[in-house]
Amino acid sequence: MSDISITHEGHVATIVIDRPPHNYFDVELIRDIASALEHIDEDVNLRSVVLAAEGKSFCAGANFTQPKTQPSGASGALHLYEEALRIFACKKPIVAAVQGPAIGGGLGLALTADFRIACAETRFAANFTRIGFHPGFGLTVTLPELVGCNNAELLFYTSRRIDGQEALKLGLANELVALDQVRTRATALAHEIAECSPLGLLTTRATMRAGLVDRIRAATRHELAVQDRLKTTNDFAEGVKSSAERRSGNFIGK
Predict the structure, then answer these.
(1) How do residues 83-95 score in pLDDT, each as one tens digit?
(2) Which residues are within 8 A (CB) of 10 and not within 5 positions of it... i.e. 6 or more apart?
């Protein structure tokens, strides 16, 4: 697990992603996070988790200029979304310390957490349609459940990037603090959660998230099938190119 670190303090575990500056993910990184969470589940002394990141971004999703980082192959045993399902299946509350951009699949990773602490510098974006792509990482389930269907549609259809203040209004962020206080406040919230009875926490969270893994599994199968098809299009190639060149895409619908 060379790109994450895990520490414990009292009843709280902290997982830190360490691929600065943007913490792009691949199958291995998501698998390592899932494995860390499963180990935390097995430790009866640990009751809550902080998920944080080093660098400018919390997680900028997949780096589409490097094809090996992209989710692909619906039948692949190590497919990224199969590893993401393991994160959703973990049992203990997670507080994400989102100190910077959470973009695309990085937004999906942030929404695996129960709560998000953000700052003015935080940016959230489901920017898939801007690159000729389709949402993934279970966002077609998690985003509308968090902000409402119509707000999710607005974020999907425009691919707009919103700051921490707007995220707080929409419910994407639970609290807004200064940049240098994001991880501190996330840790404080995790400790507040960990003061409660572990059996009460586990059973209540299981009730609140009942059926979530099954919904995410169905959603990611559909998301992946559409993503694999769109990757073969001219518009996707143009979307990746225009994004790298920081310009609007010249899309043709093919």
Answers:
(1) 999 999 999 999 9
(2) 191, 194
